[in-house]
Amino acid sequence: MLDNLLKALQDSTFANWVQQSAYPVVITFHSIGLATLVGLLMVIDLRVLGFARSLPLPALRKLMKVVWIGFWVNAISGSMLFCIDAKKDFYSGLFRTKLSAIALGLILGTLIKNRVLANPEPYAPGTSGTSSGAKVLATLSLLCWIGAIVSGRLLAYFTFGDVGIDE
Amino acid sequence: MMAAGTTSMALAHPILEWIKHTPIGDWVRDSTWAFPMLQSLHFIGMTMLIGVVGIIDLRVLGVAPGLPIHPLHRFLPLAFVGFAINLTTGICFFCHDPYVYAFNLSFRLKMLLIVVAGLNALWFRLGVFIDVDKWGPGIEASRLAKVISALSIIIWFGVITAGRFIAFTPSK
């Protein structure tokens, strides 16, 4: 049932159009969205870890709306890319690793925004102003996004780690 | 490259042929893992570079106005590390098959745009950096700084676009 659905999706006129015509443009958007999403989150994470301590944490929150623009660009372009190889991707361990890393990265980013950047404690210049718990969140966030990038890149080359496919 | 043309190409371009057969070229061509891992690093380097450049440009343009601009320059070493990663991995890609890149319009455009992005950053450094100290929290950057920052974002997105189009551009 699910397999038929995935098969129908990748055989659809839309999937065919993405593969034949839109592909270079779609992967370009996917790369620009990645640079926006992960680039800004990486800088925020490094500030939480103690880089550029004279930057006020709450002022970084405004960047999160640009982070979300990057995310939606990639959710849309990524969904289009998924259509091309729906069945292969769905059963790929790499693809599932990538999506899990993204989901966890978004949760961590939201936690950092709401708990760390919104820290009501008075901000003291010269100190990082973040707890060791906040630094753990930022470190995990960096690892998640690096994991998402690497698994996404490998997905273009390998099909290993497939789960539950019966063909 | 077509197999039949390889010999004449090699004779016509001894430098490219030499680059192709450096240990780096051999390693990237022969290894299953080299190319995907180098690409992963190339994307990580890209996020480091674009993230730092992007946060400065966005602040100059008025997003997150509560950020003082001057301390953002503390992140610049990260951008340079990202650039170094991408230069290194990029050289590995080039050695892997110099003919693909050397005669590729998208690759040439990408290299040109990187130089233009560098000159644009230099313009920021020489033209408006002297005022950066004044642009503390809530203080708007000058119009010139905004123009340079908007150009910076456009040029870097152009670099990414040209890079992605290398694989879809014929090498001739």
Your description of this structure?
The complex is a heterodimer of chains A (167) and B (172). Chain A has helices spanning 2-10, 13-49, 64-84, 86-90, 93-117, 132-155. Helices cover 72% and strands 0% of the residues of chain A. Chain A is mostly helical. Chain B has 172 residues and is mainly α. Chain B has helices at 3-12, 14-20, 23-30, 34-61, 76-96, 98-102, 105-127, 143-165. The mean pLDDT of chain B is 93. The A-B interface holds A 23-24, 27-28, 31-32, 34-36, 38-43, 46, 51-56, 58-63, 65-66, 145-146, 149-150, 153-154, 156-158 and B 35-37, 39-40, 43-44, 46-52, 54-55, 58, 63-68, 71-72, 74-75, 78, 137, 156-157, 160-161, 163-165, 167-168.
Number of helices, where a helix is a run of at least 4 consecutive DSSP H or I residues of chain B: 8
**Uncertain spans of chain B:** none
Report the order of strands and helices of chain B. Answer: HHHHHHHH
Mean pLDDT of chain A: 91
Low-confidence stretches of chain A: none
* Shape category of chain A: elongated
Radius of gyration of chain B: 20 Å
Largest sheet of chain A, in brief, is:
none
Extended strand count of chain A: 0
Question: How helical, in percent, are the residues of chain B?
Answer: over 70%
The computed structural class of chain A is mainly alpha
Tell me the overall shape of chain B: elongated
Proportion of residues in helical segments of chain A: over 70%
Q: Please state the structural category of chain B.
A: mainly alpha
